[in-house]
Amino acid sequence: MKHPDQYRGRQVVVLGLAKSGVQVAKTLHKHGAVVTANDKKEREQCPEASELEALGISVVCGGHPDDLIHEDVALVVKNPGIPYTVAPVAKALELGIDVVTEVEIAYLLTHAPIIGITGSNGKTTTTTWIGKMLESAGLHPIVAGNIGTPLCQAAEDASTEEWLVAELSSFQLKGTQDFRPAIACLLNVAETHLDYHGSMEDYITSKAKLFANQHETDTAVINWDDPVCRKLIPDIRAKLFPFSLTEVLDMESVYVRPSYVRGQDDELVRSIVYRDSEGNERKIVDVHEIALPGRFNVGNALAAIAASIAAGAAPEALVQPLRTFRGVEHRLEYVEEKQGVAYYNNSKATNSKATIMALGALKAPIVLIAGGLDRGSDYMELVPFLKGKVKALVVMGQTKEKIAHVARLAGLSDIVVVDTEDSAAETLRTALKEASSLAVSGDVVLLSPACASWDMFKSYEERGRIFKEAVHTL
């Protein structure tokens, strides 16, 4: 697509009045485009409409009019979550109109180098961690994207002396054309969002767009242990900078090296090591020093280290953030201990892989609260991880019977299906009370749904906040 300046006087349609949609409408309007912002929600559900209209932006709420998209429209910018099957998007594509997400606009506007981070799990944790590492190294990060601040807003404010650190979803990346991060980081790929993408092939292709426009002078940070990530390597033109939990790699990389410390008892110590392009190794920290629990967070740490070093951070500057960063809300977040039972909020676990990671991170017996939106998964991959790890299960939402069935296959006998006509909040409170009654001192009650939240809640954040409030008032 063209630079936003080249849409001056031309008609642009922005679909969706979420935070990013409002910002991109303002941005394109400021650059001279004739912007129409559209949302299917009714006017009273679009509080942002008045703000946009005050700027001279046309706003249409309450549906998608048939004449919204026509041959004189030069560009459509859609909210990432809007499917490509929705009528105005399908019509735009039929007419040959560019359809992009806000990420594309931000890239064309910014003068700052971009670190783009994507993956099925761990994006927010890794993005935040990279921001803290770059701060520690004096490299001036601006953390934005799918994590909070709209990328367009951050892009226009960023200078060439700063790094734009952007969390990116597959939805956002699918709507890019020229987007080119200086450093691209792919954490992992698991089966998720198939209701949106339609197939794993489309999902993987969308993730891979992170690397599509990179040059040989750019850097691709990639998970060497993930077979899907490995398959993408032959098509990546950028300089490869892999990370691995399981292999000592013979290239510039970050990995875990096990070694024995000789003493009264030989002790196996696992250390995070950076290997430079000349083959020199430098230990950064021992794995046990990382503040965040769980093997998967060691993987997130490796990715953050690789991206930060690629951006110019000195390895020694990364030690303190590794030792002190304690995570992000709703990601295996410790809430409180009551009567010897520890409560954890992992509401961001919107797929089975994320729940499996959480189960592996906790050592105590677990009473698991799971269930939510049914996206067609069978959840069978949970079976081996429920055995011996989860002592009881409480399920709710559209997938409650599916997950209960999987738990029975895993040999669980304490299974509570919460099936009420109460509000979503009250249903979650009931699930928490059931879980608490099944837990004893020394156990963990873990909210880790393995499902998206939209069958009951507006977002995983809302689900997590209600859970935490309910824990505090038990």
TrEMBL record:
Positions annotated to bind ATP: G119, S120, N121, G122, K123, T124, T125
Function as written in the Swiss-Prot or TrEMBL entry: Cell wall formation. Catalyzes the addition of glutamate to the nucleotide precursor UDP-N-acetylmuramoyl-L-alanine (UMA).
Gene coding for it: murD
InterPro entries on file: Mur-like_cat_sf, Mur_ligase_C, Mur_ligase_C_dom_sf, Mur_ligase_cen, MurD
Alphabetic keyword roster: ATP-binding, Cell cycle, Cell division, Cell shape, Cell wall biogenesis/degradation, Cytoplasm, Ligase, Nucleotide-binding, Peptidoglycan synthesis
Its EC number(s): 6.3.2.9
Reactions accelerated catalytically: UDP-N-acetyl-alpha-D-muramoyl-L-alanine + D-glutamate + ATP = UDP-N-acetyl-alpha-D-muramoyl-L-alanyl-D-glutamate + ADP + phosphate + H(+)
Pathway(s) served: Cell wall biogenesis; peptidoglycan biosynthesis
Location of the protein in the cell: Cytoplasm
Keyword Phosphoprotein carried by entry: no
Main location: cytoplasm
Gene3D superfamilies the record matches: Mur ligase, C-terminal domain, Mur-like, catalytic domain, NAD(P)-binding Rossmann-like Domain
Protein source organism: Paenibacillus puldeungensis
Enzyme class (EC, first level): ligase
PANTHER family in the record: UDP-N-ACETYLMURAMOYLALANINE--D-GLUTAMATE LIGASE (PTHR43692:SF1)
Molecular functions (GO terms): UDP-N-acetylmuramoylalanine-D-glutamate ligase activity
Classification via NCBIfam families: murD
Cross-referenced SUPFAM superfamilies: MurCD N-terminal domain (SSF51984), MurD-like peptide ligases, catalytic domain (SSF53623), MurD-like peptide ligases, peptide-binding domain (SSF53244)
Protein name: UDP-N-acetylmuramoylalanine--D-glutamate ligase
All residue ranges annotated as the Mur ligase C-terminal domain in the record: 330-451
Protein family according to the UniProt entry: Belongs to the MurCDEF family.
Annotated Mur ligase central domain residues: 117-307
